[in-house]
Amino acid sequence: MTPSLKSGMCSITMRHLGADQVVALAVRAELAGIEWGADGHVPPGETGVAEAVARRCADAGVAITSYGTYLGMAPFDDPDLPPDELGAALDSAEALGAPLMRVWTAFGVESDAREADRTAVIATTAAIVEAAARRRLGVALEFHPGTLTHTAAGARIVLEGCALKGGNDPLRTHWQPDPALTQAEALGELESVADSLAHLHVFTWGPGGIADRHPLSDGAELWLPALTVAAEAPPLSGDLPRYALLEYVADDDSAQLVTDAATLNAWIGQI
After folding, report:
1. How many of the other CB atoms lie within 10 Å of CB of 243?
2. What's the whole-number average pLDDT of the chain?
């Protein structure tokens, strides 16, 4: 296995399981790490929960790759947001021992949005990066339809906009394929953000998206070259390993996750 690229999973893939069950499943599937989701297993601000999850992972020999938050999806002045959402997420990331925090950009603001809206997204993201840096936490963007990071070009707007604001630890981005693109187009998107890559969210979906899930093995034509790009991308800060994280397997089935993990581990072993 290439030392710079390891296999893992997003805990939200098995949202219906408890945290202990998720860890046990990762061990069974021979996955090296877990990105823990803030919308279920490790809620923001519940630091006791985060500490318990961290202990369980340490005991099982499973790394914590990142803390998957939804910071940035809505503006900080949204009245529906809980007070000090940012501080609560940072507290949990620290208690979890996550080296990296995954954040979103505002839903509904894409690359063709008004300049004022794009500027606001950059300002919000930069504020998160600055606050995280004070706690020695890295930040990576969710690469997702319906947001400014729907495309590599849009992600670069945020990455470069935040870089202009300074900071010692650069903002990075996760990457996942858009099922609406051809395999060649999706691979081109990954190559365009490879210099700022954090981790991969790995799945094989058909044109119907999340409702059209397939065994990971069906996506070999995309994933074998994509994993190679990820393995050869510039290293993360502190020489942290990069992870290919399984997400949203067919039927939310534990057995399918184990099968997909075997496929993923075999592919990584070929790099």
Report:
1. 29
2. 94
User: Given this model, what pLDDT does residue 1 score?
Assistant: 40
From CA 95, how far away is CA 21, in angstroms rounded? 20
Dist CA 191 CA 146 (whole Å): 21
**Radius of gyration of the chain from its Cα atoms, rounded to whole angstroms:** 17
Query: What gap in Å lies between CA 115 and CA 221, rounded to an integer?
Result: 37
Question: What is the DSSP secondary-structure string of the chain?
Answer: --TTEEEEEEGGGGTTS-HHHHHHHHHHTT--EEEEETTTTS-TT-HHHHHHHHHHHHHHT-EEEEEE--TTSS-TT-TTSPTTHHHHHHHHHHHHT-SEEEE---TT--TTS-HHHHHHHHHHHHHHHHHHHTTT-EEEE---TTSGGGSHHHHHHHHHHHHHT--SS--EEEE---TTS-HHHHHHHHHHHGGGEEEEEE-EE-TTGGGSEE-GGGGHHHHHHHHHHHHHSPPPGGGPPEEEEE-S-GGG-HHHHHHHHHHHHHHHHH-
> Domains of the chain (ranges plus CATH)?
5-270 (3.20.20.150)
Question: pTM (2 decimals)?
Answer: 0.95
- List the chain residues with pLDDT less than 70: 1-3, 75-83, 166-169
